[in-house]
Design a protein that fits this description.
Layout: E1 26-31, H1 41-50, E2 60-66, H2 69-77, E3 82-88, E4 100-105, H3 123-129, E5 139-145, H4 158-176
Parallel strand pairs: 1-2, 1-3, 3-5
Antiparallel strand pairs: 4-5
Helix pairs in contact: 1-4, 2-3
Length: 189
């Protein structure tokens, strides 16, 4: 969950539903700025997930939010049981670029000082402000990748591009094991 950017990408919804009011289900949200090299990781994984020949599971929507934080907030306000954010994450001191980390997020993990920008994307700020907007934090997970290059430019670094299939598999595994999901743990591979 890095650098807010200046441009976003169009949504991709593999759920086959219109954009009307939704309640429940699972939302897989690809977030990040595709114009900041590796920050485009979340949208790239969302595109791969949306293009799968078989849906992930009934009730799962995959959306490429890019940097549209307000759009994500409104979709969460419509009601979601489980949120899976796909984004870049900071290295944990031992993780090399391209490492995948799976984290569970609770309200206690969120920085209350995070500033919400309706024209940008800071997923933590969106989640912090959810309650003040009349919503609640759903069960939330992050499938994150340690970036190598967040400078301006289009295209993922080789290390991060190579991690996209692993992230797709991690999302599938997480959705297949929702009831026994990891508790605030992180794994690096």
């Amino acid at each position: 969950m890095t650098a807010p950017g200046r441009a976003g990408t169009a949504p991709h919804d593999s759920g086959g539903q219109d954009s009307g009011e939704r309640t429940g289900g699972v939302l897989v949200a690809g977030v990040g700025n595709m114009f900041l090299h590796d920050d485009g990781f979340g949208p790239e994984v969302a595109r791969h997930l949306a293009a799968l020949p078989q849906p992930l599971a009934p009730g799962v929507r995959v959306v490429d939010y890019g940097i549209r934080g307000m759009h994500l907030a409104y979709d969460l306000l419509a009601g979601v049981d489980t949120l899976v954010l796909v984004d870049t994450v900071p290295a944990d001191g031992t993780s090399a670029p391209g490492s995948i980390r799976v984290l569970q997020v609770s309200s206690a993990d969120l920085d209350r000082r995070a500033s919400f920008d309706p024209h940008g994307m800071d997923p933590a700020a969106v989640l912090v402000r959810l309650r003040s907007m009349g919503g609640r934090l759903p069960a939330t997970y992050v499938v994150g990748c340690v970036p190598e290059d967040l400078s301006e430019g289009i295209g993922l670094s080789q290390a991060v591009a190579g991690a996209v299939p692993e992230a797709v598999a991690a999302v599938g595994s997480l959705l297949g094991h929702q009831s026994s999901a990891p508790k605030r743990s992180s794994t690096s591979t």
